[in-house]
Design brief:
By secondary structure, this protein is an alpha/beta fold. The protein contains eleven helices and twelve strands. The chain has a domain of about 220 residues: NAD(P)-binding Rossmann-like Domain (Rossmann fold), CATH 3.40.50. Helices cover about 40% and strands about 15% of the residues. The strands form three sheets. Strands 3-2-1-4-5-6-10 form a seven-stranded parallel beta sheet, sandwiched between helices. The protein has a three-stranded mixed beta sheet with strand order 7-9-11. Helix 4 links the parallel strand 5 and strand 6. The chain starts with a strand and ends with a helix.
Length: about 325
């Protein structure tokens, strides 16, 4: 029997690389879409067929989609701050639409689309967000959240009106090995390990191991229902506790100063202005402060019940991330 053929986007990135490794272990033959100048360190040593192309140029990958048994669309532009909102929308919304339409044309029978918990309805009081928590576009703070919300809405529209055979997964804040950029969440871990976060605001995140997110993708592929969404997370932790765990593992004193958000807005605004001049992403943004008003706490009960999803503790994810970052000289 021939190996199932999978078309995968985002394999050079953090979550996509974890998904690629899992799919290979499952015996899949991978065709991975990558732009010509992408950093391909995460694909080193992997037996994959590279398809050079761009999400918004379907002719660059249309032929490679044909004959595939499934599509995993993991690729996304994940940044908290961008100088050009249109560019992020082009990738996250326009690119998703183009790929899904091409997949329909190719007759791919099974699709897993990677969304984000950023599209969920969050609560200021820390109540757990679920797949069906009420939410609207007006709740989306910042370009990244807005683009992921619109992309997921586009996938839902294609499922409802065009029969797109897609299952949606919503990862929380993955950390772990091979975060080469690193992602915004990974930068928190690196900066905390280097002692560059002396204080913090009162917020919270759901932390999950990137390999558990990859496993959740596979479970959604195997067991997920078309049109349903599944949160892939692990533990809900206050930011102060995340920093404490990092500090304990690396042997640094943990930060204890909790800052109010309001006085930080002028600093964030100044950092954004400087970023527009230098082109370097700011350490603090106004949108990040606004997002911090709501703890991004989520429930994974649906994925646990429907998919038999069983993530490991957040501390294990933090430890694995730190081990990789230290081995690669990030901190």
């Amino acid at each position: 029997m021939s190996s199932p053929s999978v078309f995968l986007t985002g394999a050079t990135g953090f979550v996509g690389a974890a998904v690629a490794r899992l799919l290979i272990r499952k015996g899949c033959a991978l065709r991975v879409l990558t732009r010509p100048h992408n950093d391909r360190r995460n694909l080193a040593g992997l037996d994959v067929q590279m398809i050079e192309g761009d999400l918004n140029a379907p002719d660059s990958y249309r032929a490679a989609l044909k004959g595939c048994d499934s599509l995993f669309h993991v690729a996304a532009d994940y940044r908290i701050w961008v100088p050009d909102a249109a560019a992020m929308h082009a990738v996250n919304v326009g690119g998703t639409r183009a790929l899904m339409l091409a997949a329909l044309d190719a007759g791919i029978p099974r699709i897993v689309y990677t969304s984000s918990v950023a599209t969920l309805g969050m609560h200021k009081d820390g109540t757990l967000a679920r797949e069906d928590s009420p939410v609207s576009f007006s709740d989306m703070i910042g370009t990244y959240k807005q683009s992921k919300y619109l992309a997921e809405e586009e996938v839902r529209r294609l499922i409802t009106h065009h029969g797109l055979p897609a299952v949606i997964v919503n990862p929380s804040m993955p950390i772990g090995p091979r975060d080469i950029k690193p992602t915004p969440t990974g930068r928190v871990i690196v900066n905390a390990a280097k002692g560059k976060i002396p204080a913090f605001v009162d917020t919270g995140l759901n932390v999950v191991h990137v390999d558990d997110v990859a496993q959740g993708h596979w479970l959604a592929f195997e067991r997920g229902q078309i049109g349903e969404r599944y949160i892939l997370g692990s533990e809900n932790l206050p930011l102060g506790e995340i920093l404490r765990i990092v500090s304990e593992i690396v042997g640094r004193p943990a930060p204890t100063v909790r800052l109010p958000r309001a006085p930080l807005y002028p600093l964030a605004f100044g950092m954004e202005c400087l970023a527009r001049l230098t082109g370097k992403e700011p350490m603090l943004t106004c949108h990040a402060l606004r997002m911090a008003e709501k703890k991004m706490y989520v429930s994974t009960s649906k994925a646990e019940r429907a998919l038999d999803y069983r993530p490991r503790p957040a501390r294990d994810a933090i430890a694995d991330a730190l081990a990789w970052f230290r081995a690669e000289k990030y901190c």
